[in-house]
Amino acid sequence: MKEKEVKVLDIDKEEIERKLIELGAVLIKDENQINYRFDTEDGVLKKKYNGYLRIRRTENNLTGEIKNTMTFKRSIKRDSLRVNEEIETDISDWESTAKIIELLGYKRKRPGYKHRRSYVYDNIVFEIDTWDDYTYSKPYLEIEVSSYEDLEKAISLLKLDRNKITTKPIDELRKE
How far is C-alpha 2 from the geometric centre of its chain's CA atoms? Predict the structure, then answer.
Protein backbone atom coordinates (compact mmCIF):
# COMPACT_ATOMS: atom_id res chain seq x y z
CA MET A 1 0.00 0.00 0.00
CA LYS A 2 1.21 3.50 -0.76
CA GLU A 3 0.33 6.36 1.54
CA LYS A 4 0.64 10.06 0.79
CA GLU A 5 0.97 12.33 3.79
CA VAL A 6 2.28 15.47 5.41
CA LYS A 7 2.68 16.57 9.00
CA VAL A 8 1.52 19.92 10.36
CA LEU A 9 3.73 20.94 13.29
CA ASP A 10 3.12 23.15 16.33
CA ILE A 11 -0.62 22.57 16.43
CA ASP A 12 -3.20 23.35 19.06
CA LYS A 13 -4.83 19.91 19.39
CA GLU A 14 -8.09 21.22 20.81
CA GLU A 15 -8.47 23.84 18.07
CA ILE A 16 -7.78 21.30 15.29
CA GLU A 17 -10.25 18.84 16.79
CA ARG A 18 -12.89 21.56 17.17
CA LYS A 19 -12.48 22.56 13.51
CA LEU A 20 -12.75 18.93 12.39
CA ILE A 21 -15.93 18.38 14.40
CA GLU A 22 -17.45 21.62 13.07
CA LEU A 23 -16.74 20.42 9.51
CA GLY A 24 -18.59 17.20 10.23
CA ALA A 25 -15.52 14.97 10.23
CA VAL A 26 -16.11 11.55 11.78
CA LEU A 27 -13.93 10.16 14.58
CA ILE A 28 -12.67 6.80 13.32
CA LYS A 29 -9.85 6.06 15.81
CA ASP A 30 -8.83 6.87 19.34
CA GLU A 31 -5.90 4.66 20.18
CA ASN A 32 -2.75 4.21 22.19
CA GLN A 33 0.20 2.70 20.36
CA ILE A 34 3.53 1.21 21.30
CA ASN A 35 5.88 1.27 18.30
CA TYR A 36 8.98 -0.94 18.21
CA ARG A 37 11.40 -0.31 15.35
CA PHE A 38 14.05 -2.78 14.24
CA ASP A 39 17.22 -2.42 12.19
CA THR A 40 20.74 -3.76 12.17
CA GLU A 41 23.48 -2.08 14.22
CA ASP A 42 24.75 -0.38 11.06
CA GLY A 43 21.25 0.67 9.91
CA VAL A 44 21.00 -1.42 6.73
CA LEU A 45 17.23 -0.95 6.37
CA LYS A 46 17.57 2.83 6.65
CA LYS A 47 20.60 3.03 4.35
CA LYS A 48 19.63 0.49 1.69
CA TYR A 49 15.84 0.87 1.61
CA ASN A 50 15.23 4.27 3.26
CA GLY A 51 12.90 2.42 5.58
CA TYR A 52 12.40 0.42 8.75
CA LEU A 53 10.71 -2.63 10.19
CA ARG A 54 8.14 -1.98 12.92
CA ILE A 55 5.90 -3.87 15.29
CA ARG A 56 3.00 -1.73 16.46
CA ARG A 57 0.83 -2.73 19.40
CA THR A 58 -2.45 -0.78 19.26
CA GLU A 59 -5.11 -0.47 21.92
CA ASN A 60 -8.37 0.84 20.48
CA ASN A 61 -9.87 3.16 23.12
CA LEU A 62 -13.29 3.03 21.42
CA THR A 63 -13.68 -0.77 21.44
CA GLY A 64 -10.99 -2.06 23.83
CA GLU A 65 -9.55 -4.23 21.04
CA ILE A 66 -5.79 -4.82 21.02
CA LYS A 67 -4.10 -5.41 17.66
CA ASN A 68 -0.49 -6.20 16.74
CA THR A 69 0.86 -5.31 13.30
CA MET A 70 4.26 -5.83 11.69
CA THR A 71 5.12 -3.30 8.99
CA PHE A 72 7.98 -2.65 6.61
CA LYS A 73 7.76 1.04 5.74
CA ARG A 74 9.95 2.93 3.31
CA SER A 75 9.93 6.42 1.93
CA ILE A 76 9.83 6.45 -1.87
CA LYS A 77 9.28 10.16 -2.57
CA ARG A 78 9.41 13.45 -0.69
CA ASP A 79 8.38 16.72 -2.25
CA SER A 80 5.11 18.51 -1.40
CA LEU A 81 3.79 15.12 -0.26
CA ARG A 82 5.66 12.29 1.41
CA VAL A 83 4.92 9.01 -0.35
CA ASN A 84 5.59 5.83 1.61
CA GLU A 85 5.24 2.21 0.73
CA GLU A 86 3.90 0.10 3.57
CA ILE A 87 3.76 -3.67 3.63
CA GLU A 88 2.01 -4.91 6.73
CA THR A 89 0.48 -7.95 8.31
CA ASP A 90 -1.41 -8.65 11.52
CA ILE A 91 0.46 -10.80 14.04
CA SER A 92 -0.99 -12.68 16.98
CA ASP A 93 2.11 -12.85 19.20
CA TRP A 94 4.22 -9.70 18.99
CA GLU A 95 6.82 -10.86 21.53
CA SER A 96 7.63 -14.09 19.63
CA THR A 97 7.70 -12.13 16.36
CA ALA A 98 10.14 -9.65 17.92
CA LYS A 99 12.38 -12.54 19.07
CA ILE A 100 12.43 -14.01 15.55
CA ILE A 101 13.38 -10.62 14.09
CA GLU A 102 16.16 -10.25 16.69
CA LEU A 103 17.46 -13.79 15.93
CA LEU A 104 17.79 -12.67 12.30
CA GLY A 105 20.23 -9.96 13.40
CA TYR A 106 17.98 -6.96 13.84
CA LYS A 107 18.08 -4.88 17.03
CA ARG A 108 14.97 -3.60 18.76
CA LYS A 109 15.15 0.16 19.24
CA ARG A 110 13.66 2.03 22.18
CA PRO A 111 9.84 1.89 21.99
CA GLY A 112 7.85 4.98 21.08
CA TYR A 113 4.50 5.60 22.76
CA LYS A 114 1.84 7.48 20.82
CA HIS A 115 -1.77 8.55 21.34
CA ARG A 116 -3.67 9.02 18.07
CA ARG A 117 -7.11 10.43 17.34
CA SER A 118 -8.14 10.05 13.70
CA TYR A 119 -10.94 11.74 11.80
CA VAL A 120 -12.08 11.34 8.22
CA TYR A 121 -13.73 14.00 6.09
CA ASP A 122 -14.35 13.69 2.36
CA ASN A 123 -11.82 10.80 2.06
CA ILE A 124 -9.11 12.84 3.79
CA VAL A 125 -7.70 11.33 6.99
CA PHE A 126 -6.66 13.72 9.77
CA GLU A 127 -4.61 12.16 12.57
CA ILE A 128 -3.73 14.07 15.73
CA ASP A 129 -0.60 12.44 17.13
CA THR A 130 0.93 12.93 20.56
CA TRP A 131 4.13 10.98 21.30
CA ASP A 132 5.93 10.45 24.56
CA ASP A 133 8.34 13.28 25.39
CA TYR A 134 11.45 11.29 24.47
CA THR A 135 10.22 10.33 20.98
CA TYR A 136 8.78 13.74 20.03
CA SER A 137 7.48 16.16 22.61
CA LYS A 138 5.07 18.26 20.49
CA PRO A 139 1.73 17.14 19.06
CA TYR A 140 1.23 17.33 15.31
CA LEU A 141 -1.44 16.71 12.72
CA GLU A 142 -0.80 14.11 10.05
CA ILE A 143 -2.90 14.45 6.90
CA GLU A 144 -3.24 11.43 4.60
CA VAL A 145 -4.60 12.13 1.13
CA SER A 146 -4.90 10.44 -2.23
CA SER A 147 -3.87 13.50 -4.27
CA TYR A 148 -2.21 16.89 -4.10
CA GLU A 149 -5.65 18.46 -4.68
CA ASP A 150 -6.93 16.79 -1.51
CA LEU A 151 -3.98 18.20 0.40
CA GLU A 152 -4.83 21.69 -0.82
CA LYS A 153 -8.44 21.13 0.21
CA ALA A 154 -7.39 20.00 3.71
CA ILE A 155 -5.13 23.04 4.14
CA SER A 156 -7.95 25.33 3.08
CA LEU A 157 -10.64 23.64 5.20
CA LEU A 158 -8.61 23.93 8.41
CA LYS A 159 -6.93 27.24 7.48
CA LEU A 160 -3.49 25.75 8.15
CA ASP A 161 -0.23 27.68 8.10
CA ARG A 162 1.80 26.33 5.16
CA ASN A 163 5.04 27.19 6.97
CA LYS A 164 4.22 24.50 9.55
CA ILE A 165 3.80 21.72 6.96
CA THR A 166 6.60 19.18 6.56
CA THR A 167 7.28 15.85 4.89
CA LYS A 168 10.00 14.95 7.39
CA PRO A 169 9.72 11.64 9.25
CA ILE A 170 9.67 11.57 13.04
CA ASP A 171 13.34 10.55 13.37
CA GLU A 172 14.40 13.70 11.47
CA LEU A 173 12.08 15.93 13.49
CA ARG A 174 13.57 14.59 16.73
CA LYS A 175 16.99 15.91 15.68
CA GLU A 176 15.76 19.50 15.28
Answer: 13
